Amino acid sequence: MKHSRIRLVTTAFLTMVLFGAGGLAYAGGAHEGGHHKKTTMSHWSSPPEALKQVNPVAADSMSISSGENLYVQLCAGCHGKNADGNGQDASSLSQEPTNLRAMSGGHADGDFAWKISNGRGDMPAWGEELDSTEIWHLVNYIQSLSSH
């Protein structure tokens, strides 16, 4: 009985590590090529509570268009015009920008929102400059890239 409980806990832990609290596979596959390895920084994971965050902004054409406008102004310099991580400023950064097109559809909305808000390393924290609706518009735009 004791061994089966240990096996159950171990299985639950490994499932959480491989698939994250939000049930998304972060070990490659769905967005292979989205994460770059110019430095030794590990995969960037947002807190589990961020993964559960529900996007309050409908991903309609108006939101996606607003997100695209923000993306062009704030993000394209590093992440690239096509969101493939090859922006004009990418070579000057310590870590290659993420290929957002490859990541689109492979991460929870809350994961993208948290990363946009908080930043890390060369990635600016936009949470003080953008309001939450603008951040969700960016998320909707990024998520729309998987359908293009």
Enumerate how many helices there are, as a single number. 7
The percent range for helix content is 40-55%
The assigned structural class equals mainly alpha
Radius of gyration: 17 Å
Order of helices and strands: HHHHHHH
What do we call the CATH homologous superfamily? Cytochrome c-like domain
Arithmetic mean pLDDT: 80
Please report which band the strand proportion falls in: under 5%, 5-15%, 15-25%, 25-35%, 35-45% or over 45%.
under 5%
CA-to-CA gap between the ends? 51 Å
Question: Strand count, sense and closure of the main sheet?
Answer: none
CATH architecture group name: Orthogonal Bundle
**Overall geometric form:** globular
Based on DSSP secondary structure assignment, what is the total number of beta strands? 0
Number of domains: 1
The CATH class label is Mainly Alpha
Low-confidence stretches: 1-33, 36-41
> Which fold name is given in CATH as the topology?
Cytochrome Bc1 Complex, Chain D, domain 2
Characterize this entry briefly.
With 148 residues, the protein is an all-alpha fold.
Structure explained in plain terms:
This protein has 148 residues and is mainly alpha-helical. It is built from 7 helices and no strands. Helix content is 45%, strand content 0%. Helix 3 (61-74) crosses helix 7 (132-144) and helix 6 crosses helix 7. The radius of gyration is 17 Å and the shape is globular.
Topology, pairings included?
Elements: H1 2-19, H2 48-51, H3 61-74, H4 76-79, H5 100-103, H6 109-118, H7 132-144
Helix pairs in contact: 3-7, 6-7
Please give a handful of descriptors for the protein shown:
148 residues, disordered N terminus, mainly alpha, Cytochrome Bc1 Complex, Chain D, domain 2
